[in-house]
């Protein structure tokens, strides 16, 4: 761009501001415009001898998180780190990252919740083996698997988010339920009892009959060796056990006691707190709110298994840090990632439990975190360690759509075991076509 | 002078509207001659007027469109650089993909329903508003106000405030007044009440702007035309509407229809925000599916192919209505 | 009656008389309008009602149409929330919307006039190619456009937010349709006075197009104000958030903050409501002008 044009731009902007004094408040945006564009603004230390790094976070909901990540960046002395707090609901943040990686102003460091094999194949992501390999055993296998392609690790977990069922102890007592459900039939039974005894809806699993919340976890809870994709990259979710598990969740929905829809989605704990339900599917992040509202009148348990042969299950969800391979300072970026999520246990603890509730992915760190040592929080750590699962990186958004469409039909429509199996077979065939494009 | 022409509605569509009659009278042969001589100068002047727009469209539309066309014939995953050309394979894949074809089918039906409904509602409201003398501006403002609300926010209000399936939703509160049970508006496949939710939010948001276009058209119809037709014995109401109002609203009607069709096929935000998660498969617009393929899955080859299929369908519908209404004609 | 006739300047064939039929029809028309108006205003009421409620009340089974109490402290909470740059978002949106509207009206009015009036052999082809841009779903060319804009180093800048939104096939189309029915004799008069296209456009056409300009300005301003997908991608940092992006924060994945969502929605549309009510009179006047000309 010619100098001429940029100076005339800033001239009109100045004029514009003169005529409308109050607008000066928005200085940060204007400063970014007048500066060099992508690199300008932010909280960098400004030491010109150090490498410049841009780091992206999605907008976390917990108060204080933005200030926290900006202070981590400020306290780091080996690079000027500019933090961008990127907006986006649902998948929008991930889309912003994906798009930015294709353009000319990609971030050096960014978090994502899943790894894209295609991005690895395009050489967009830097392998992090050199900083990660020595500490691999200190992470849960489920925290490593989703970010490993051909033996190389491309992301380091920053926080783990298991999901599970919150229940009210007092309501369970009133219904004479003494044992936490360990099979899906026991859950259905408990739902009927607790609903009748307390005159409330039994459980909330989201406004879509549980499709979004449970479609993956139900597979893992249906039995040993049940998964989305196998280790040798075959589609394996279309089994009778999985079909039966989905039908059981349909049966739960069909009891008529399930809260069919709420103002909130399943990840907001409000329906549980305002007394609409006795149980709710939600995540660890909601626990501080629950403790404040209900003190010790609540407990948690994972999604029960299909029958005696299967274990309960939860997901090892959360966010992981990645490094852009085509950035100008890849080594410096890796060093910063290492300092945050490998070396600095203080940052890891602060980040995971000071604002909301998450589990530090380093097992040694999570074991030292006081807030996670007692009560339901300790249960959550146990549940994650024992029953945490995750999908391989080859499981992608297209397959997710195919599976969700099929599961939506089963959970809402029901039908026979063979119908459900047929729907899963059809979805598996589509997923297989998609999988072949990735391999 | 217009009253001699008792125009039939169908015929009137091809009859030049009033300003065009004037233009025909004034374009004398001499002035046409002069224009021919100044052709070259006119071209220069034309580009002075249209140049900035065309330049901008080239950078922000035409180059990206050509880019998308190229990608639609190629493999391009997590990159915008084609990694090998595959001919029409991406198109074939999209037509084989039942999720895509069923969403196209659903949205043909949706367009066939929502376009006439929006058209009739906005025209009816324009006539109604235009027919009263007092507080006309107030009513016009009220009906136009929803335009100020974005689709994302309106979806949130509809999803969380009006049609939530709990006792806290407005719709269910109204049901309780009649001693009916709470209703699950969005999440059940049968009966498909979610269409009521989706259609009402779209009408609420869109009707106002089309109504304004019609009101503008109505106010440009010279009053003399009606007065002359009353002298000829025509009655107020349906007769004058058929003979005068509707034919002279041709330009407004064309604009409204065209924009409506395009808007129906480009439906995105309210579906994306209201039919969340496992509910989206109940009513997934083609554009949302394309977006999932291109943005979530980073598959720009298939995404672009799907987008171009959708674009061709939109163009086909536009041309179809153009055949009937003579849209975009200059004279 | 005499005053009425002299005011309207035109002889009327019928004297308006109040008959029973007319009264009934007026009551019916006003009745329908009022009922419809209530329905149209209902969602706005909900925004305010839920915006001034407690978080628990919004989703509680005891929800009622008229709440027991209104929590006006929600307003101060919203404006003082350090995690939500609400004021900055409003200012950024104003800046973007004003600049985009000015640019778009200028560029598209020029093009619309050129397409409608200047005899040029390719003008129809160009018109159709402009229409084509209307039919391309923006979400689809989104990524290439982003790559182009980022190659200009426009990400996180004001020009990145504003410029791509200036070139609108929609606004051009509406301007062209309007200029097609612009009275030729006015322009002819200018031509007799020795004006060229440029002079005719600025001295005759623009001054007589106040109605359409204000109408399209309102529409453009609203579209710019409500844009979401593009500002989300280009205004990446919290300093460059527009108000829509700020509001979307209340829907973030872990914590839907509903009373703030409803309240901020209500506040975000307030400027548009004010603008519209102010310009409303002007638009009406503009249309009346053009009605007299026909």
The CATH architecture name of the largest domain in chain A reads: 3-Layer(aba) Sandwich
Helix residue percentage of chain C: over 70%
Average predicted local confidence, pLDDT of chain A: 87
Rounded to the nearest angstrom, the distance between the terminal CA atoms of chain A is 42 Å
GO biological process, one term (chain B): transmembrane transport
Domain ABC transmembrane type-1 (chain B): 104-321
InterPro entries (chain B): ABC_transporter_permease, MetI-like, MetI-like_sf
Protein name (chain B): Sugar ABC transporter permease
Walk me through the structure.
Chain A is of the alpha/beta class. In chain A, the strands form 4 sheets. A 5-stranded mixed beta sheet of chain A has the order 2-1-3-12-6, sandwiched between helices. Chain A is globular. The two termini of chain A are 42 Å apart. The N terminus of chain A is likely disordered. Chain B is mainly α and 331 residues long. Chain B has a single domain, classed as Orthogonal Bundle (MetI-like fold), CATH 1.10.3720.10. Helix content of chain B is 70%, strand content 0%. Chain B is built from 16 helices and no strands. The longest helix of chain B is centred in the N-terminal third of the chain and has 34 residues. Chain C is mostly helical. Chain C has 2 domains: 61 residues; 212 residues, MetI-like (MetI-like fold, Orthogonal Bundle). Chain C contains 15 helices and no strands. Chains A and C meet through helix 1, helix 2, strand 2, helix 4 and helix 13 of A and helix 3, helix 5, helix 7 and helix 14 of C.
């Amino acid at each position: 761009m010619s100098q001429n044009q940029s100076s005339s731009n800033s001239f009109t902007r100045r004029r514009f501001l003169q005529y409308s004094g109050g607008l000066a408040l928005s200085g940060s945006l204007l400063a970014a415009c007048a500066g060099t564009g992508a690199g300008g603004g932010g909280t960098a230390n400004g030491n010109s001898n150090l490498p410049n790094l841009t780091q992206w976070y999605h907008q976390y909901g917990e108060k204080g998180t933005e200030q926290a990540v900006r202070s981590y960046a400020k306290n780091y002395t080996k690079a000027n780190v500019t933090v961008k707090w990127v907006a986006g609901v649902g998948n929008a943040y991930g889309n912003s990252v994906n798009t930015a990686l294709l353009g000319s102003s990609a971030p050096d460091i960014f978090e994502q919740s899943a790894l894209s094999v295609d991005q690895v194949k395009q050489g967009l992501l830097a392998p992090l083996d050199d900083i990660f390999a020595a500490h691999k055993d200190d992470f849960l296998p489920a925290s490593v698997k989703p970010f490993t392609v051909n033996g190389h690790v491309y992301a380091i977990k920053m926080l783990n988010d298991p999901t599970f069922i919150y229940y009210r102890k007092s309501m369970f007592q009133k219904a004479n339920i003494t044992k936490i459900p360990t099979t899906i039939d026991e859950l259905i039974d408990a739902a009927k009892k607790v609903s009748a005894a307390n005159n409330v809806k039994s459980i909330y699993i989201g406004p879509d009959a549980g499709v979004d919340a449970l479609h993956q976890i139900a597979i893992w809870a249906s039995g040993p060796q049940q998964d989305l994709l196998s280790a040798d990259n075959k589609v394996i979710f279309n089994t009778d056990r999985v079909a039966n598990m989905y039908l059981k969740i349909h049966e739960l929905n069909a009891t008529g006691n399930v809260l069919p829809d709420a103002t909130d989605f399943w990840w907001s704990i409000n329906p549980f707190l305002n007394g609409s339900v006795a149980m709710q599917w939600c995540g660890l992040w909601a626990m501080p709110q629950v403790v404040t509202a209900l003190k010790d009148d609540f407990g948690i348990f994972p999604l029960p298994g299909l029958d005696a042969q299967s274990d309960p299950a939860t997901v090892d969800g959360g966010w992981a840090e990645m490094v852009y391979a085509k950035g100008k300072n890849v080594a410096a970026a890796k060093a910063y990632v290492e300092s945050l999520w490998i070396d600095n246990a203080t940052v890891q603890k602060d980040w995971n439990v000071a604002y909301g509730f998450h589990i530090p992915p380093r097992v040694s760190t999570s074991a030292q975190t006081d807030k996670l040592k007692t009560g339901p929080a300790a249960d959550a750590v146990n549940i994650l360690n024992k029953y945490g699962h995750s999908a391989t990186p080859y499981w992608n958004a297209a397959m997710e759509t195919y599976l969700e469409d099929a599961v939506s039909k089963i959970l809402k429509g029901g039908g026979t075991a063979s119908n459900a199996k047929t729907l899963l077979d059809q979805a598996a065939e589509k997923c297989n076509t998609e999988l072949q494009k990735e391999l | 002078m217009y009253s001699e022409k008792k125009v039939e509605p169908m015929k009137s569509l091809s009859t030049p509207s009033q300003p065009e009659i004037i233009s025909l009278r004034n374009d004398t042969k001499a002035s046409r001659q002069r224009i021919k001589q100044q052709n070259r100068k006119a071209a220069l002047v034309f580009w002075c007027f249209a140049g900035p727009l065309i330049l901008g469209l080239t950078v922000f539309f035409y180059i990206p469109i050509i880019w998308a066309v190229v990608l639609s014939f190629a493999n391009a995953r997590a990159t915008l650089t084609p990694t090998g050309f595959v001919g029409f394979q991406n198109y074939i894949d999209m037509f084989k993909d039942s999720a895509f074809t069923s969403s196209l089918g659903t949205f043909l039906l949706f367009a066939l329903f929502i376009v006439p409904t929006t058209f009739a509602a906005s025209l009816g409201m324009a006539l109604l508003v235009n027919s009263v003398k007092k507080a006309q501006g107030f009513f016009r403002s009220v009906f136009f106000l929803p335009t100020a609300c974005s689709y994302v926010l309106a979806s949130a209000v509809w999803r969380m405030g009006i049609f939530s399936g709990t006792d806290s939703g407005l719709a269910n509160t109204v049901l309780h007044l009649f001693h009916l049970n709470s209703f699950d508006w969005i999440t059940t496949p049968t009966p498909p009440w979610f269409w009521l939710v989706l259609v009402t939010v779209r009408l609420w948001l869109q009707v106002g702007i089309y109504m304004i276009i019609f009101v503008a058209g109505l106010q440009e119809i010279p009053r003399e035309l009606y007065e002359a037709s009353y002298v000829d014995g025509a009655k107020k109401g349906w007769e004058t509407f058929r003979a005068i109002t509707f034919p002279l609203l041709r330009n407004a009607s064309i604009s409204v229809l065209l924009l409506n069709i395009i808007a129906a096929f480009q439906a995105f935000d309210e579906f994306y925000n209201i039919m969340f998660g496992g509910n989206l498969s109940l009513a997934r617009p083609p554009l949302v599916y394309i977006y999932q393929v291109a943005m979530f899955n980073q598959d720009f080859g298939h995404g672009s192919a799907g987008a171009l299929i959708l674009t061709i369908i939109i163009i086909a519908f536009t041309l179809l209505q153009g055949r009937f209404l003579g849209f975009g004609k200059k004279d | 009656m005499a005053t009425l006739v002299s005011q309207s300047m035109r002889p009327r064939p019928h004297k308006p008389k109040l008959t029973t039929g007319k009264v009934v029809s007026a009551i019916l028309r006003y009745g329908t309008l009022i009922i419809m108006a209530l329905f149209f205003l209902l969602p706005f009421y909900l925004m305010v009602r839920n915006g001034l409620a407690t978080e628990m009340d919004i989703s509680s089974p005891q929800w009622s149409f008229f709440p027991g109490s209104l929590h006006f402290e929600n307003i101060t909470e919203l404006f003082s929330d350090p995690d939500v740059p609400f004021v900055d978002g409003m200012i950024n949106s104003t800046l973007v919307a004003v600049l985009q509207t000015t640019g778009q009206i200028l560029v598209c009015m020029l093009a619309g006039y050129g397409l409608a009036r200047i005899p040029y052999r390719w003008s129809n082809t160009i018109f159709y190619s402009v229409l084509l841009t209307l039919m391309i779903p923006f979400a689809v060319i989104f990524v290439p456009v982003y790559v182009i804009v980022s190659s200009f180093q426009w990400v996180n800048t004001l020009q990145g937010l504003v410029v791509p939104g200036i070139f609108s096939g929609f606004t051009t189309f509406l301007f062209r349709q309007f200029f097609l029915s612009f009275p030729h004799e006015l322009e002819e008069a200018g031509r007799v006075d020795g004006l060229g296209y440029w002079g005719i456009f600025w001295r005759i056409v623009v001054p007589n197009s106040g109605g359409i300009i204000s109408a399209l300005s309102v529409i453009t301003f609203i579209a710019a104000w409500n844009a979401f997908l593009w500002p989300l991608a280009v205004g990446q940092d919290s300093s460059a958030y527009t108000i829509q992006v700020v509001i979307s924060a209340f829907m973030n994945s872990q914590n839907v903050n509903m009373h703030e969502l409803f309240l901020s929605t209500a506040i975000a549309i307030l400027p548009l409501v004010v603008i519209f009510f102010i310009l409303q009179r002007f638009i009406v006047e503009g249309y009346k002008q053009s009605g007299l000309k026909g």
